[in-house]
């Protein structure tokens, strides 16, 4: 079964596909997250802030809150950004499942109320909104890095851009623009909304391509790229 785990692209979360044994569970997704990016994903700039060797001890879901118990390795080393990022990776991965809205953390079976040397407060369940600064302004949830797509391609996710508008561009294997469209999310300008669009594209040839999510600067009109997703385009 297919799900998503969240690595980092730059300093922000970026989803990647994973296949886990049926039935697809948050536990399976979290174990896949802890295993780290694949070589392909690493070559395309995906990293993780989660220390190698971190293990999932248990996960219990009650009333849409997942209590996730990780091994003590999880809080080893790293500054404030690294600590925030590794929390965000777990929260985004767990909340991809409809049954989970927020996460409560434990380390080696003990509840966490303050995380890391900077003392990040975790005395309450946290959700995606608590890590808004670590989400790109345009978060593409599908298609995912490495996916093979054909026209028209469905693109969905969430965004928090000025007046809820932004652009999605598809570049084909020849480096030419196969599509470049305006998209409007359900909300923006400080409030994250969702989007779900179907984009027809015209590729010169099949092969490696890229989906770019961006918005144009109000100051000089230049493109501000929020994320790039390598794909395989089928003509």
TrEMBL record:
Annotated ranges, domain GerMN: 26-116
Q: Which Pfam families match?
A: Germane (PF10646), Gmad2 (PF10648)
From which domain of life does this come? Bacteria
Write down the SMART domains for this protein, in alphabetical order: Germane
- Name of the protein this chain belongs to: Spore gernimation protein
The organism encoding this protein is: Streptomyces aquilus
Q: What is the lineage of its organism?
A: Bacteria, Bacillati, Actinomycetota, Actinomycetes, Kitasatosporales
